[in-house]
Amino acid sequence: MRNTLLTISLVAAAITTLIVSCDTAASKAHTGVTVSKYSLVKRGEYLITIGGCDDCHSPKKMGPQGP
Description:
- With 67 residues, this protein is mostly helical.
- The chain has helices spanning 2-29, 37-51, 53-57.
- The mean pLDDT is 77.
């Protein structure tokens, strides 16, 4: 029982350390560069295209009252 608790504690500590270090690295990586709306739209278009989101989340044909 004691070994199980020790193992769980060590795993929890390791996961917490990884989460904190990833968060710190992401905040340090911010360069303060502004992004244009056009580039955000193009990036979203790209992500939807490669992710296949529009396969299910887009109407296949338009009717007189919309999709």
